[in-house]
Amino acid sequence: MLGILLNRFCIGLRVLLGLMMGLLAIPVAMQVVSRYTGLIPTFLWTEELATFLFVWIVMIGSVVAVWDGTHFDVRITPDATTPAFRLLQRGIVHVAIMVFGALFLFYGIEYAEFGSKQRSVMMRANLMITHISVPIAGGLWLLLSGYRLSQDVAQFLNRESHSS
């Protein structure tokens, strides 16, 4: 049941990513048109809006990548040929992501509090808008990697019980 909810949540994140990418095209297009044609005046707030959107796109994209198992990992050993070694390889990656997720969550809270005390120059927006993405992403990495690790362990134990 939890897996179904998490999968639907990540589908929603993919939709949100698509919408945000479309939205990002607007201020970027305005910047390009104003810079190279002079048809519209240069609006400095478009750069800030593009930055805010880009930060959120990166963080949400990293959460989806953790769920899909397409996030960056380095293989320093050959691909596993046994179920136990495969569990070890995947487990190390999941635990590493969980450690970084915990660090981002823990230190990201202080980072978000720091952002809450600042405002952007042009839009006068509270910078917590972008800073809060760090602990949110960290918490979601922790949750999703923990779930994937539990799935891998359950799959391994299920294979072991059927092979006995």
Protein architecture, described:
With 164 residues, this protein is an all-alpha fold. It has one domain (2-163). Helices cover 78% and strands 0% of the residues. Helix 1 runs antiparallel to helix 2, helix 2 packs parallel to helix 5 (133-163) and helix 3 runs antiparallel to helix 5. The radius of gyration is 20 Å and the shape is elongated.
Which secondary-structure class do the elements indicate? mainly alpha
Major sheet size, sense and barrel closure? none
**How many DSSP E strands?**
0
Portion in helices: over 70%
Please state the overall shape, judged from the principal axes of the Cα atoms: elongated
Poorly predicted ranges: none
Mean pLDDT across every amino acid position: 92
Instruction: Please report which band the strand proportion falls in: under 5%, 5-15%, 15-25%, 25-35%, 35-45% or over 45%.
Output: under 5%
- Give the CA-CA distance, first to last residue: 28 Å
Summarize the structure.
With 164 residues, the protein is mainly alpha-helical.
Could you outline the blueprint of secondary structure elements for this entry?
Blueprint: H1 2-36, H2 45-68, H3 83-116, H4 128-131, H5 133-163
Helix pairs in contact: 1-2, 2-5, 3-5
Key phrases:
164 residues, mainly alpha, 0% strand
